[in-house]
């Protein structure tokens, strides 16, 4: 502990103060001396120049030139040496040299250093002798050699000087000039310890330019006399630290977001120093010249000479405090600073959304500036136009129309330009249906905006030109403010409180409950409730009617005032009107949940309380919106701090926490100052080492994490084959379970935006964090960007079997407090449907709250059974082997290549010995205990014993073929089945090392075959290599199907004795289930494509356990508890973990900062950090969810208004009119009756349930043969499949008239389904054609079969394309 503290003080604290220089006792004297003299030169050179020479620009130029030459020399030599190490060859010394040696002696210590890191050691552990030897070699020019030796002899006490004989063995050639080179006996680690490496030439040039700029700008400030006395030396110290960091930087820096060497952080000090110097110079020049015209706002005069000089002095103090600022890590690395600055400007000035990368922040800001510049021209022209008492200039009405239309369009677009670019550069992926859905959603938004933006512009122009905002003043303004306040209060406060689990932390149950609230297990999608429709419509009215009217009203008032009273600042007022209108409109479109509070406060404060402080309503509203965003951040920070340090619920995770707790009391005053500072600059407020002492970190974007860390699943597609067979990578639970969080991310992508707009997660805003908690899934959802109809989020999945601390916090968020009857120290009880005093008090002192208890998402239920318990006895293994053999026979008979195999000469020649009457296979693998066809008299398996058991099954499978073949005892088909069954069992025995009597080897062999590791070692089985499909399409799926049949055997032991039942069960499993190893890429594809059921055999090797489990997945609707966490709590704990692990180097896995704290969910939040800071098992990429894909929201608001939808509506309306006229002119028929044939217009378009990312299996009509249905009716183990088929047949009409399900690769089926898919498609086509109802009227001919409501020709064609797509997809998967 002491050595670690010294290391932190030396490499962290002292190095941060000096810019990277510190004395390392583990390094050589040469390295430490080089660093010391280098730092002294950079410090003393500008100081001596300033003190000794008269101030002039010539001196500044000379100083910067010397620095440039000095840095160029160092960077060139360093770059050339690294290039030599990369490309040069080591030269072995073979000849002797004669020369004169100049030796630098070094005092030898009696003992070597105790600890020495190999990464930072310059010359090794032993003593070092550095020699510069001048050699002369056969008329060549002299060159220098730097020797690197290690003294192998032991150092003796009282020895002052030692001279060693040079014994170099190898060296590098460093070419200086053609024909001249230096002999270098140096290594890469020594050079890295001496100087930082710049890998590219551009980095070296940029470093030299930065060093020169630091020298010139810093000396220029010295010449202007901004510093006196000791502050001159302090400023020279800042210059030296900035320049030294370009040669040997602080690693890791206090603001570094990553372990190891961070090359970006190297440029932080010089870049910030140059910016600070330029701003000091600009403010000084502006303040002295007085060229800027000052103006007053709320009593504060801006841009006056005093104001500008005050800002200059603040920047001077800021520059002098650079060592302390970088010690505490208050400034981020350069790219993070640029992203945060651009994001804050776009959000608070132009009303933009949060960004996802530096590129997206730059794109968003440029987009906003261009729109503001376009609007500024119209606004300036409208202000300069004449304004009458009841007249609005046409140009201003045009400005209002463009403003509303462009603001609406910007609010509907994501800040990520790659999403928009994907529309133009889109390639369809057969394996992954998600890019196509994202592409369609973006296209839908663009097509809708193509209609809505001109329509909104025209309507706004008409309203503005009608002078309604002038004629109805001031009553209209008051009515709009009251209406906005009332609707906002009901929408964003009253309804969310009534829907919370604990309304106002007083009621024990929600007042407005969903239909799933009282259900123990959710079996269907969430139902659409009346209050959800009300919430959605109130939001629609608020966003598209009330707030646009409020903003346009204030814009008209402001522009009229400016236009009638022309002043010199009109051009700036026009710019402000354009920017303020765009910001307020975009904010009301994207995040209206907090606008009513800002609007009500602005109205009450400036109109009633302090009207003399008011400027204009537009200015007041604009600046109050910025102020309130910071006030909300301050409120959340104070809540987090007070909750975290409350003495009655403090949790000490370590001794340091108990030690730091008393210091939190005098720290409170500074703490609140830090909270205000951090709220202004959007910086996290993090607890030091998880204690009650808080410090401010550096500013971060809403995204928070600077690295784009995403989980990479390890499977057979990205690992070597030898690694798969030997070490089985990715076999740990975390890697295998990460796929469920990936599927959960896909489900959220389809439903999150719509569910938020329906109020199912309560109130939300940018940066909010939620925890989804289920039986085994615990995920943190970070909402990053909120647009008008889109949400960008990131999901972080935690471990299934978490630590003890995680389990305690999971219990805290899942247990209810309704039964608590305590009041202080007694238990008097509580009123009905109310919380007790203790429960209500405790809920108010938490950094989280339960937003919903029954949030429904589509997912997979996971059940795992121990394979050892299912195969413990020999009888159970015999059943498995029997099903294994029968599955092989089934796949042989179902294969389309069976006739080819039966006529293959190589295969038949190899199987001919099996036809002999005395043939017996007596391999040691076969055993009487597990092989049902074992002949104990022959001590093996004979064809006769095999046929006695399996001939009936072979004949039945052959009879189910379309073209049966000869199937007698001596037929080629029986011989082929016999050979493959022998081969399959021998492969199992080989993988089990022929130890069939032991369970562990048997499970090992079964798992090896299950994942496809077939090792053919017997010469009698080499005939299978004649066609590898015998292994891939017969034996491999046979061993997998046998495991499923063996699992079904426990529910109905005697069911599969009937060949018909067994055959139909295997067929049904092939159609409805995927059985595969979890490392196979097809497993991930099937889950993401929503396969109804999956089965796998998992080998778990974790924490000393070695067990096998049968994993069964069934797609169903899962119920989650939605926990809303204080976003400042999450940001603060994340920042604290990053500082503790990266800068303070705390590697203790049981550190106090990750111990459980139920009031703040400290362990769960810290576990969700990016690896290696945290340990989530899955971190999703930034994912965007669109509201257009939510079927329930579309049923409330209707579909998008796009050109295609308008065209479709016109055509359908014309068809309905034509049919109605035809029915009316033909014997007085009813129009409504005839309209039922038209499609979906006679059916309710409001779906009862929420259609999620794919159509469930129960809603997909899949006709089955009559024999199969008859068999399923008397089968008990596959009742679920029968129910699904019956429900699909019952829902076939309603599903056909509803919006059609997404086709293509979203429907997934195994390969065995494809063989009969064409036949079934033909049956459906025939049914649709024969069932068509035709009618011919006086006006034309039309038929029901061509409509979408029935299985007509169009539907059959689309389904045929779907089947073909599925066949192509699965065939490719199976090939690979």
Automatic annotation (TrEMBL):
Report keywords, A-Z.
Membrane, Transmembrane, Transmembrane helix
- Which residue ranges does the record assign to the Pecanex C-terminal domain? 968-1191
Q: Name one GO cellular component term.
A: membrane
Transmembrane ranges? 36-53, 59-77, 205-224, 230-250, 262-283, 295-311, 318-342, 362-383, 390-411, 446-472, 478-495
Q: What is the protein's name according to its record?
A: Pecanex-like protein
Species the sequence originates in: Sander lucioperca (Pike-perch)
In residue numbers, the region (Disordered) covers 1235-1262
Topology in membrane: Multi-pass membrane protein
Its annotated compartments are: Membrane
Superkingdom of the organism of origin: Eukaryota
Q: Please report which protein family the annotation says this sequence is part of.
A: Belongs to the pecanex family.
Note the Pfam families from the entry. Pecanex_C (PF05041)
- Its main subcellular localisation, reduced to a broad class, is membrane
| Gene name for this UniProt entry | LOC116064944
Composition bias (Polar residues) maps to 1241-1261
